[in-house]
Design goal:
Elements lengths: L4 H10 L6 H10 L2 E2 L3 H8 L5 E2 L6 E10 L15 E9 L2 E12 L8 E2 L6 E7 L9 E7 L3 E8 L6 H9 L1 E2 L5
Protein name: DUF4367 domain-containing protein
Length: about 180
């Protein structure tokens, strides 16, 4: 369907989010829920989950999971009004430690750490870490707020994943229109 963002979000809100028995067990054990598709993630968190449209060559999907910002939902209850966090990861095929992430949630940059910085033309923050936990690779986070959601793209820089490539990934994040 060629839907506006409001129509698509309305469709997501109409469906009652419920976890499968396996997802409920993982939520209780680990505090995360792995999901298979963007559509399933959108249904459970209560908003349209975005994804990067640019994935550098050699990077493979490593998983999609949901986390919760606030207290966990009671097993079987709905998620709290779009407060879920969708997290995706892509791994470089040649070196598993080299990877990038996308975390997104409804909210503002208020509770996000980092140095204020424009990211892809939007308000944002930037965080850079070196010598973290014995890793030889630095970590860069680019947090972008589009007025409704925060999109945090982080990457362990090395191999083909440079700061410039990470910015390109961050700027390509968007909700994909249904076909």
């Amino acid at each position: 369907c060629t839907c506006t963002t409001e129509e698509t979000e309305s469709k997501v809100e109409e469906e009652k989010p419920t976890l499968t028995e396996e997802q409920q067990e993982l939520w209780v054990e680990r505090g995360v829920v792995p999901v298979s598709t963007i559509e399933e993630a959108s249904r459970l968190v209560g908003y349209q989950v975005a994804a990067p449209t640019f994935i550098p060559e050699g990077f493979l999907p490593g998983g999609l999971q949901l986390n919760q910002l606030g207290p966990p939902p009671q097993v079987g209850d709905e998620w709290d009004d779009g407060s879920g966090v969708a997290q995706q990861v892509w791994n470089w095929s040649s070196e598993r430690e080299i990877r990038f992430f996308l975390m997104q949630f409804q909210g503002t940059l208020e509770n996000v750490q980092g140095v204020p910085s424009e990211v892809c033309g939007d308000s944002g923050k930037r965080e850079f870490f070196v010598n973290r936990e014995g890793s030889e690779y630095p970590l860069l986070w680019l947090h972008r707020w589009d007025g409704e959601r925060v999109y945090s793209v982080g990457g362990i820089l090395g191999g083909p994943l440079t700061e410039e490539i990470l910015y390109k990934i961050a700027c390509s994040v968007r909700v994909r229109e249904e076909e």
